[in-house]
Design a protein that fits this description.
- There is one protein chain.
- By secondary structure, this protein is α/β, with parallel strands linked by helices.
- The chain is 49% helix and 12% strand.
- The protein is built from 36 helices and 26 strands.
- The strands form 6 sheets. An 8-stranded mixed β-sheet has the order 4-3-5-2-6-7-1-8, sandwiched between helices.
- Helix 4 packs parallel to helix 5 and helix 30 packs parallel to helix 31.
Length: 950
């Protein structure tokens, strides 16, 4: 019998061995002696707590020379396994690289390992920082390791272990490919330690790791070391989400179900307006009901948690502005969570950490308001904050000096910042395209922060009651503890030239076919093939059922199908023609035209502010594609500024009237919009919209339709009394035949998909002379040093000399277009650009992108699948130019209309790409390397330069 104990040797163990025979005691003593000689035994002595069974199992597998995949909940201590890999590397005289997905997590892990092993043994490598990079243990972001592998860095010599923390990031559609590149390209001698959140297909991921990395042990633990309790806060009452049933079965709390049912039957305001008199008893019941079910305000929630002993708490609000507003609401409510001693400690730490920030910038950054919140124990945490401010909030929270944090979901994805409670205001968030329900995986990730190991006996997740909430839906989110890991791997231009240079085309193709993406696709084909076989059996049965004694019913059914397809085609052609006419009418619109939007959400009177023609793609409207046709920006009579699409104009639109747009008009100013909308209604509110007449259908005069109808009537089966019965079987036959053909195409499409995409990329690079068969040209070697979404565009700009002769500030403005992505949608006006050479260079960059876009279309490289070059965005060019020109932070942030945290982040990304461009540009005869180096120096000042570690 095997007994797993997480306690040290003691009386229990002595008692267990007393009943053993002498031979058994001797064998047990030998086992203990062998265990004491292991690396795990010395490692366990470094901790003042016992290890959990899953940690012991993973560490033993590592010591046995196996790779491991550990999938466990947030806060369960899976990083212990990563730290054991560090311990093994140091013991064996090898190197260990500890990779993390974000810099904040790298900084935190670096600090942890320095405390344990000393600064001389630990290094740090992030995109903009290098500390002791030759140390035996180096913490780095995953991208840094990927770049090392492609560059064949000497730092890889002696590498024995790689820890990939948060390996489930390979599902990330933007950065996930990097994880797979590292896993595939690491030398075989390196042992891989993969640490993941609980995913439902850990075994599948483990099978793939076994295939590409060799013997890999999969250890899955769904046990939370700190149990999590789920609640709903409605009005003054905190409801438990679940009640324990028989046999540990959890059922939704019937009080919550009753509450939801009562609220759904409450008489509406419209009902009362219609004159339905309510008896006094009904009114009293409604008042009591309303008093129980309101959504508490943010200060109320914090006060309630404080009273219940549930602080510190993280409240997730899916909006940066909402996080800042929540702090202000708590301050206005007079909330104070810290005593005088804590306030002094907060002020001392804040002043120490922010001492390097220029004093003149503190007011611009909202320092004093931020400090007031911290002193009271309240703070926001989101990507728009200055990195220094975020780090201070994290440190104060861990120390217990900040007790209420209002954060966006980005906090849940990275740093170790557990709380006693987690609060979710809503179960809906904006996903970049629409407001959507959060997924079970996201819910698990967010609530996983609740419960601090070694501090809290239990953690608490609190969801605020919202009108229309379904307790059953919430229980579904809370009850689904795992989510599947899906590969987002796609080849890129940089990846292609690096692979071909190292391995040649044929071997590179084989390597890509070992990706997790292809592994998952190939597995899914098995199920589809079985479905095709079942469909073929069904087709045979349908064919027999539609047999007609008068003739060939399959031929008759084919005629009916051809007739239907012809009618559908003519209807579609008519719709296309109407859309084309509508597009032509839109192209004739000019700023100042008053139109009537015929349909859609913004139907009604509107004033054209910008016609949004395809030729104006250099206006940098995000997501604007030239295939979409004109997309006019309009001001509606309801004071909304919106960019419309062709779907809003199913029929041609003509100007009803014209009016002048004042030069002072600012679409971001509510007053400005209100004044112009009022003038619009006065000018054209009385003009009725033009009615569009329907034309005669093309099918009425079509000869092919007439021929098919005649053939149908002449066919022998047309007179069959069971014709419609046969026809129904025939319809099922053709429907199943169509479905089967689609499945067969899916099988064909999923087989070797990654390799086919690679072939198309290689063909395009060959066309542009980056590759010649297995040879990488000089242009290709330049591309190999450029990493990022717009790697090929950057290389083409260097090749064409677009940036030659630019000064550092102008080059910074141009490079910003390669990294920046706006958070706003299509409603934004054209961005302000620096004049002179920079403006000309930015225009040339957009033209080069246009040529690449056309070339990608020719080679069937689809950007929507994550491959290809997106359009460069010019929205940060003016801010980068001003900052690199030496302008003050106050002026730059005011002009850019951007939070300080975003500004710093984009500046650091521009600095990173400038470094790549400096290395990739020709060493002789080019002004770019010097300008890039100088631009980095000009950008790296003030708040951009200050960073605690990385």
């Amino acid at each position: 019998m095997i007994v797993l104990l997480s306690v040290g040797p003691g009386t229990l163990e002595s008692t267990m061995t007393e009943d053993l025979s002498p031979a058994e005691r001797y064998a047990a003593a030998r086992r203990r002696a062998a265990e004491q000689a292991t690396a795990l035994a010395s490692f366990r002595e470094m901790y003042d707590f016992g290890l959990d069974p899953f940690q012991i199992e993973a560490c033993q597998a590592l010591e046995a020379g196996k790779g491991v995949l550990v999938a466990a909940p947030t806060g369960s201590g899976k990083t212990i396994v990563g730290e054991f890999a560090v311990h093994l590397a140091l013991r064996q005289g090898k190197k260990c690289f500890y990779t993390t997905p974000i810099k904040a997590l790298s900084n935190q892990k670096y600090a942890d390992l320095c405390r344990r092993y000393g600064t001389e043994k630990v290094g740090l490598l992030t995109g903009d920082n290098s500390v002791n990079s030759d140390a035996p243990v180096v913490v780095m972001t995953t991208e840094v390791l990927r770049n090392m592998l492609y560059a064949g860095s000497q730092t890889l010599l002696g590498l024995g272990y790689v820890v990939m923390d948060e390996v489930h990031y390979l599902s990330d559609r933007f950065r996930g490919a990097v994880w797979e590149e590292v896993i595939i390209h690491l030398p075989e001698s390196v042992t891989l330690v993969s640490l993941s959140a609980t995913v439902s297909n850990a075994e599948e991921f483990g099978d793939w790791l076994d295939t590409v990395r060799g013997d890999t042990e999969v250890i899955v633990s769904e046990h939370r070391p700190v149990p999590l309790f789920q609640h709903v806060l409605a009005g003054r009452r905190m409801y438990d989400l679940f009640e324990e049933g028989e046999g540990h079965r959890r059922a939704v709390n019937p009080d919550l179900t009753r509450l939801a049912r009562m609220e759904s039957t409450r008489p509406s305001y419209q009902d009362r307006r219609r004159g339905r008199a309510m008896r006094e008893a009904d009114r009293e019941r409604e008042r009591r009901q309303r008093s129980r079910t309101w959504t508490p305000g943010r200060p109320e929630v914090i006060e309630r948690l404080d009273a219940e002993g549930l602080l510190p708490a993280i409240t997730f609000i899916f909006s940066r502005a909402g996080c800042e507003a929540a702090v202000q609401q708590c301050l206005y409510a007079g909330l104070r969570l810290n005593d005088d001693t804590a306030r002094e400690q907060v002020r001392a730490l804040v002043e120490e950490r922010t001492a390097a920030i220029p004093r003149e910038d503190l007011h611009v950054l909202g320092y004093y308001e931020w400090l007031e919140g911290l002193e009271r124990g309240i703070a926001a945490h989101h990507a728009g904050m200055l990195p220094t401010f975020k780090e201070v909030v994290e440190e104060l929270f861990v120390r217990g000096l900040v007790k209420a944090v209002f954060a966006t979901e980005t906090l849940a994805l990275g740093i170790n910042m557990p709380a006693r409670s987690v609060v979710l205001e809503k179960l809906v968030k904006w996903n970049g395209e629409q407001h959507a329900d959060i997924t079970p995986g996201e819910y698990t990730q967010l609530t996983g922060r609740a419960g601090r190991r070694g501090i809290d006996v239990e953690g608490h997740a609190v969801v605020l009651w919202q009108r229309g909430m379904s307790p059953e839906h919430l229980a579904g989110l809370a009850g689904t503890r795992t989510y599947p890991l899906r590969s987002s791997f796609k080849p890129s231009y940089n990846m292609a030239v690096n692979l071909v240079e190292q391995f040649g085309r044929h071997r590179s193709r084989e390597l890509l076919e070992t990706s997790f993406a292809q592994f998952q696709a190939d597995r899914s084909v098995v199920g589809i093939s079985r479905q095709v076989q079942r469909n073929e059996e069904g087709l045979a049965g349908y064919k027999a059922s539609m047999t007609c004694h008068l003739g060939d019913f399959e031929e008759y059914a084919r005629l009916r199908r051809e007739l239907k397809d012809r009618e559908t085609e003519l209807a579609r052609r008519g719709a296309v023609q109407r859309r084309a006419e509508a597009a032509v009418a839109l192209e004739r619109l000019k700023p100042g035209d008053i139109i009537h939007v015929p349909t859609g959400k913004y139907a009604g009177l509107a004033l054209v502010l910008d016609p949004g023609l395809p030729a104006g793609r250099s206006n940098n409207h995000r997501g604007f594609d030239h295939h979409d046709g004109p997309r006019p920006l309009v001001l509606t009579a309801e004071r909304q500024v919106k960019r419309l699409a062709s779907v809003d104009f199913p029929v041609p639109v003509e100007p009803l009237e014209r009016m002048r747009i004042p030069k002072s008009f600012n679409p971001r100013s509510p007053q400005s919009r209100r004044d112009l909308a009022s003038a619009l209604r006065t000018k054209a509110g009385h003009i009725p919209p033009e009615r569009h007449r329907k034309r005669r259908a093309e099918a009425a005069d079509d000869r092919e339709i007439a021929r098919l109808r005649k053939a149908l009537r002449a066919h022998p089966c047309h007179g069959c009394s069971d014709r419609e019965d046969h026809a129904r079987w025939a319809e099922r036959y053709y429907r199943l035949l169509r479905d089967t053909s689609q499945l067969e195409r899916r099988i064909e499409g999923r087989t070797n998909t990654i390799a086919r995409t690679f072939d198309r990329i290689v063909a395009l690079l060959t066309e542009l002379d980056y590759l010649r068969a297995d040879e990488v040209t000089e242009h290709g070697r330049r591309l190999a040093r450029l990493y990022g979404e717009l790697d090929l565009l950057a290389s083409e700009c260097l090749r064409a000399g677009v940036w030659e002769g630019l000064n550092p500030a102008e080059l910074a403005a141009c490079v910003s277009a390669l990294v920046y992505e706006a958070r706003v949608g299509d409603d934004a006006m054209a961005p302000k650009l620096p004049s002179g050479k920079a403006k000309a260079a930015l225009g040339e960059m957009v033209r080069i992108w246009g040529r690449l876009d056309a070339l990608e279309e020719e080679f069937r490289i689809n950007q929507t699948e994550g491959v290809g070059q997106r359009e460069p965005e010019l929205g940060f060019a003016w801010a980068a130019y001003m900052w690199a020109s030496g302008k003050g932070l106050d002026e730059v942030l005011r002009e850019a209309e951007m939070p300080a945290g975003d500004f710093v982040r984009w500046c650091k990304q521009v600095i990173d790409v400038l470094g790549q461009i400096q290395a990739a540009a020709p060493a002789e005869g080019s002004t770019v390397p010097k300008a890039a180096r100088k631009a980095v120096e000009e950008l790296l000042r003030g708040v951009v330069a200050y960073s605690s570690v990385g």
